[in-house]
Write a structure and sequence with these properties.
Helices cover about 60% and strands about 10% of the residues. By secondary structure, it is mainly alpha-helical. The protein folds into two domains: about 5-70, Arc Repressor Mutant, subunit A, CATH 1.10.10; about 95-129. The two termini are about 35 Å apart.
Protein backbone atom coordinates (compact mmCIF):
# COMPACT_ATOMS: atom_id res chain seq x y z
CA UNK A 1 0.00 0.00 0.00
CA UNK A 2 1.49 3.39 -0.93
CA UNK A 3 2.32 5.58 2.02
CA UNK A 4 0.28 8.76 2.37
CA UNK A 5 2.17 11.88 3.26
CA UNK A 6 1.84 13.55 6.65
CA UNK A 7 0.08 16.42 4.90
CA UNK A 8 -2.63 14.01 3.72
CA UNK A 9 -3.37 12.73 7.20
CA UNK A 10 -6.60 13.70 8.87
CA UNK A 11 -6.58 16.15 11.76
CA UNK A 12 -6.93 13.28 14.26
CA UNK A 13 -4.19 11.26 12.58
CA UNK A 14 -1.81 14.26 12.74
CA UNK A 15 -2.78 14.75 16.38
CA UNK A 16 -1.90 11.13 17.15
CA UNK A 17 1.40 11.42 15.29
CA UNK A 18 2.30 14.55 17.26
CA UNK A 19 1.52 12.76 20.53
CA UNK A 20 3.61 9.75 19.60
CA UNK A 21 6.52 11.88 18.42
CA UNK A 22 6.46 13.58 21.80
CA UNK A 23 6.05 10.41 23.87
CA UNK A 24 8.25 8.25 21.57
CA UNK A 25 5.88 5.30 22.17
CA UNK A 26 2.57 4.67 23.92
CA UNK A 27 -0.39 2.30 24.10
CA UNK A 28 -3.79 3.42 22.80
CA UNK A 29 -5.05 4.42 26.25
CA UNK A 30 -2.14 6.84 26.78
CA UNK A 31 -2.58 8.29 23.30
CA UNK A 32 -6.27 8.86 24.04
CA UNK A 33 -5.48 10.52 27.40
CA UNK A 34 -3.15 12.97 25.65
CA UNK A 35 -5.72 13.96 23.01
CA UNK A 36 -7.73 17.15 23.31
CA UNK A 37 -11.45 16.42 22.96
CA UNK A 38 -10.60 12.72 22.60
CA UNK A 39 -12.85 10.41 20.63
CA UNK A 40 -13.84 7.03 22.04
CA UNK A 41 -11.18 4.47 22.90
CA UNK A 42 -12.30 2.28 19.99
CA UNK A 43 -12.03 5.26 17.60
CA UNK A 44 -8.46 5.91 18.78
CA UNK A 45 -7.59 2.24 18.26
CA UNK A 46 -9.08 2.38 14.77
CA UNK A 47 -7.01 5.49 13.96
CA UNK A 48 -3.88 3.77 15.25
CA UNK A 49 -4.57 0.73 13.04
CA UNK A 50 -5.02 3.06 10.05
CA UNK A 51 -1.68 4.77 10.79
CA UNK A 52 0.00 1.36 11.01
CA UNK A 53 -1.54 0.37 7.66
CA UNK A 54 -0.33 3.63 6.11
CA UNK A 55 3.18 2.91 7.36
CA UNK A 56 3.45 5.82 9.79
CA UNK A 57 3.40 3.70 12.95
CA UNK A 58 4.60 0.30 14.04
CA UNK A 59 3.54 -1.59 17.13
CA UNK A 60 4.74 -4.30 19.47
CA UNK A 61 2.66 -6.46 21.76
CA UNK A 62 3.12 -5.82 25.47
CA UNK A 63 0.96 -8.31 27.31
CA UNK A 64 -2.62 -7.72 26.23
CA UNK A 65 -1.94 -4.32 24.67
CA UNK A 66 -0.08 -2.90 21.71
CA UNK A 67 2.50 -0.16 22.12
CA UNK A 68 2.73 2.19 19.12
CA UNK A 69 5.71 4.19 17.86
CA UNK A 70 6.45 6.27 14.76
CA UNK A 71 8.30 4.45 11.99
CA UNK A 72 10.43 7.51 11.15
CA UNK A 73 12.29 9.93 13.39
CA UNK A 74 10.53 13.27 13.78
CA UNK A 75 13.40 15.08 12.04
CA UNK A 76 13.07 12.86 8.96
CA UNK A 77 9.30 13.40 8.86
CA UNK A 78 9.85 17.15 9.27
CA UNK A 79 12.26 17.21 6.31
CA UNK A 80 9.72 15.41 4.14
CA UNK A 81 6.99 17.83 5.25
CA UNK A 82 9.22 20.81 4.46
CA UNK A 83 9.86 19.40 1.01
CA UNK A 84 6.10 19.18 0.44
CA UNK A 85 5.66 22.78 1.66
CA UNK A 86 8.39 23.96 -0.73
CA UNK A 87 6.80 22.17 -3.69
CA UNK A 88 3.20 23.08 -2.81
CA UNK A 89 3.49 26.72 -1.79
CA UNK A 90 6.82 27.95 -3.16
CA UNK A 91 7.23 26.02 -6.42
CA UNK A 92 10.36 24.46 -4.98
CA UNK A 93 12.01 27.82 -4.25
CA UNK A 94 14.03 27.74 -1.05
CA UNK A 95 14.62 31.49 -1.35
CA UNK A 96 10.89 32.22 -1.41
CA UNK A 97 10.27 29.93 1.56
CA UNK A 98 13.10 31.44 3.61
CA UNK A 99 11.89 34.93 2.71
CA UNK A 100 8.41 34.05 3.99
CA UNK A 101 9.88 32.65 7.21
CA UNK A 102 12.02 35.75 7.69
CA UNK A 103 8.96 37.97 7.22
CA UNK A 104 7.11 35.98 9.88
CA UNK A 105 9.86 35.72 12.45
CA UNK A 106 12.24 38.62 11.87
CA UNK A 107 11.11 40.41 15.05
CA UNK A 108 11.92 37.34 17.14
CA UNK A 109 15.34 36.61 15.66
CA UNK A 110 18.37 37.12 17.81
CA UNK A 111 21.82 38.14 16.65
CA UNK A 112 22.83 34.51 17.23
CA UNK A 113 20.02 33.33 14.91
CA UNK A 114 21.17 35.72 12.19
CA UNK A 115 24.79 34.62 12.57
CA UNK A 116 23.74 30.97 12.28
CA UNK A 117 21.77 31.70 9.10
CA UNK A 118 24.72 33.61 7.68
CA UNK A 119 27.04 30.70 8.46
CA UNK A 120 24.66 28.26 6.74
CA UNK A 121 24.57 30.48 3.65
CA UNK A 122 28.37 30.70 3.62
CA UNK A 123 28.61 26.91 3.99
CA UNK A 124 26.19 26.40 1.07
CA UNK A 125 28.26 28.78 -1.10
CA UNK A 126 31.47 26.96 -0.24
CA UNK A 127 29.90 23.61 -1.13
CA UNK A 128 28.68 25.00 -4.44
CA UNK A 129 24.98 24.58 -3.65
Amino acid sequence: MPRKTHQQLSRRERQIMDILYEKKQAPAAEVREAMADAPSYSAVRALLRILVAKGHLSHTKDGARYVYRPTKPRRSAAREAMGRVLRTFYEGSTVDAVTALMDLSSKNMTEEDLQRLSALIDEAKNEGR
